[in-house]
Amino acid sequence: MSTAVKRYAAVDLGASGGRVMAGRVGPDSLELTEVHRFPNRPVRVPEGLRWDVLGLYAGVLDGLKASGAVDSVGIDSWAVDYGLLDTDGALLGNPVHYRDGRTDGIAEKVWATVPPEELYAATGVQYAPFNTLYQVTAARGSAHWARAARLLLVPDLLTYWLTGEQGTELTNASTTQLIDPRTRDWAHGVAERLDIDLGLFAPLRRPGDPAGVLRPEVLEETGLTGPVPVTAVGSHDTASAVAAVPADGVRFAYICTGTWSLAGLELDAPVLTEESRTANFTNELGLDGTVRYLRNIMGLWLLQECLRTWGEPDLGALLREAAQVPALRSVVDAGDAAFLAPGRMPERIAGACRDSGQPVPVSPAEVTRCILDSLALAHRTAVEEAQRLAGQPVDVVHVVGGGTRNALLCQLTADACGLPVVAGPAEAAALGNVLVQARAHGLVGDLAGMRRLLARTQPLTRYEPRGGTQRWRAAQARLARG
Hints:
This protein is α+β, with helices and mostly antiparallel strands. Helix content is 39%, strand content 21%. Helix 16 (407-417) links the parallel strand 19 (396-401) and strand 20. The longest helix is centred in the last third of the chain and has 27 residues, at 364-390.
């Protein structure tokens, strides 16, 4: 293993913003600095909701210019969305946003050919209306689809623009519902039955694989001196975040918090049972042959949308007020697709409480407490069911990502799960991104070694459960009766 200290640029793109982080890594050091942050503002045009991917790419270039000399670049982003290229490699329109309505009713068309239980047994991916498989099915017959020669997932598209090299990184590909989690290769049978040409996808890459070097034009625009390699990382941000869970051993659950909450376990093999499917758990691929067995929960999107409606009040003051609201007065199903679309979130949460016969939250503090109690309850249910379905008990819950800054949510999650919560690091996706690059350069060892380095170098906060779980079980039962 090298004893040098090297510097890496981690491009980390979320659904509401992107940033470029610079990571300095040595055998016993790990430092992360934000060098550039930029917004990710989807645009609604006549044909629907689209990502401003050119704006994102400009943000990436600005970030690389601000980062200074680096030994490698890695990109992670949200999952499922993609761009189509023509035979010249030119982008055919802005990528469609996963919250666009074009996939409404599409799943039923897919299931008419491949029933949902067969689809799950082959791919292990939970149902979500925006899965790439349904997006692709919805796109067929469009003018862009007719001209498409290549389909690149968002981080692979940006990597292509940086390097001129095309690839499909595996952890993100595993969210498409077109990968077999047992073989870690394409689900050829599913694609054949649905008449999907897998030749549209670039060859698979794995975290740590080389993904090319920055093109001369990129070097000129960013002021970097080449060659600068680009390294494939866990390009699904959740894969990078789970790689940065500072766990010791295997008896842990994780919750990656942000716009979404991804709650589950790290396993050696997928769980493809019918019971797992009906519980809506997904089997996504992680580093070193691992499986991210998790449930997708709506997450802090609920609160973000409320804050937007309320005119962006001071969050710290709001959380202090919410902490004084009686616990579990009203809860909603934080995984309900009814909350997927933007707009009027406080009104929709109040309506869900009214419809289920619970007290209706009125003030921002009451709505906020309802959201956080509901998220903690969803975390409890996911962690509880994952252990049962996978047959793997846990002793601790690791919370990583932006939600670690919300101490009330972390404490409520500990209370709900009846387990200690270790919160941190907040920048898990960027740290996982940096560490995979560093490992490709021989600076850190295996996944366990990466996690030991994180535990030694990153600030972590421990929350102990309070008050027993009886009231949470009662809330669970109340919600189930709904």
